[in-house]
């Protein structure tokens, strides 16, 4: 199964790094959509079937769980697994995401860590 992924991060550089890391991870990726703001991310969720959303903890236009809540309010978004991408100094905020069912990927990360985190949130054992 090839994955359709949304990368929601305010930094174009970080989105490019994540795309390259996904390529190196060995995950079967069909399509990668990009969003620089929470509004852009929600627009993608509203029009595209997604397998997983990787979202920066500090995404512009989203305060902590507002994006997760908004994803759940989208007709197509309620089933989409989320993986929050964060730095090590954000433990309390990460915990709130995890309590809501999101996975966590800490920066810096390797292709192997990205692969394992994505597979964990999509519920797959191998790809």
Name the descriptors.
127 residues, Rossmann fold, alpha/beta, 5-stranded parallel sheet, 5 strands, single chain
Describe the structure.
The chain is α/β, with parallel strands linked by helices. A 5-stranded parallel sheet has the order 2-1-3-4-5, with helices on both faces. The protein has a single domain, classed as Rossmann fold, CATH 3.40.50. It has 5 helices and 5 strands, in the order βαβαβαβαβα. Helices cover 42% and strands 21% of the residues.
N-to-C CA distance: 7 Å
CATH architecture: 3-Layer(aba) Sandwich
**Sheet with the most strands: spatial strand order:** 2-1-3-4-5
Number of strands: 5
How would you concisely characterize the structure shown here?
The chain has 127 residues and is α/β, with parallel strands linked by helices.
Secondary-structure map:
Blueprint: E1 3-8, H1 12-25, E2 29-35, H2 38-47, E3 52-56, H3 66-73, E4 82-86, H4 91-99, E5 103-106, H5 111-122
Parallel strand pairs: 1-2, 1-3, 3-4, 4-5
Helix pairs in contact: 1-5
């Amino acid at each position: 199964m090839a994955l359709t992924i949304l990368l929601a991060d305010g930094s174009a550089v970080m989105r490019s790094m994540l795309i390259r890391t996904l390529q190196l991870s060995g995950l079967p990726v069909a399509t990668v959509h990009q969003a620089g703001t929470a509004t852009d991310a929600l627009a993608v969720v509203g029009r595209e079937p997604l397998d997983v959303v990787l979202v920066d903890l500090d995404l512009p236009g989203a305060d902590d769980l507002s994006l997760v809540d908004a994803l759940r309010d989208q007709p197509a978004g309620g089933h989409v697994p989320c993986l929050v991408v964060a730095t090590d100094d954000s433990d309390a905020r990460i915990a709130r995401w995890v309590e809501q069912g999101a996975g966590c990927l800490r920066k810096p990360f390797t292709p192997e860590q990205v692969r394992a985190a994505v597979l964990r949130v999509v519920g797959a054992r191998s790809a």
